[in-house]
């Protein structure tokens, strides 16, 4: 059987502003935060949960955001 996949532009999937609930799951916080690099108004509930596995994640993300300005 063939399964069809439909891809949507990120602008139709995420309405801004949006706060993603992570339920203290660092993987959810880190992955949803990447969306915020392209979609303005994205917020993460409970961002401190990433300290479990990647204490410097938010600093690194800020550096990525700064380096992507104007690209």
Task: Walk me through this protein's architecture.
The protein is α+β, with helices and mostly antiparallel strands. The protein is built from three helices and two strands, in the order αβαβα. A two-stranded parallel sheet has the order 1-2. Strand 1, helix 2 and strand 2 form a beta-alpha-beta unit. It is globular, with a radius of gyration of 14 Å.
Q: Residue-averaged pLDDT, rounded?
A: 84
Helix percentage: 25-40%
Range of strand content: 5-15%
Note the total helix count: 3
Biggest sheet details: 2 strands, parallel
- What is the number of strand segments? 2
Order of strands across the widest beta sheet? Answer: 1-2
Succession of helices and strands: HEHEH
Q: Termini separation (Å)?
A: 41 Å
Describe the structure using short key phrases.
single chain, 71 residues, alpha+beta, two-stranded parallel ribbon, 3 helices, globular
Annotate the secondary structure layout.
Blueprint: H1 10-13, E1 18-21, H2 26-35, E2 42-45, H3 57-68
In short:
The protein is of the alpha+beta class and 71 residues long.
């Amino acid at each position: 059987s063939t399964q069809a996949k439909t891809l949507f532009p990120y602008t139709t999937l995420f309405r801004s502003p949006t706060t993603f609930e992570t339920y203290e799951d660092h993987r959810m916080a880190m992955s949803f935060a990447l969306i915020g690099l392209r979609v303005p108004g994205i917020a993460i509930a409970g961002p401190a949960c990433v300290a479990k596995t990647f204490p410097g994640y938010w600093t690194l993300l800020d550096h990525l955001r700064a380096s992507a300005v104007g690209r």
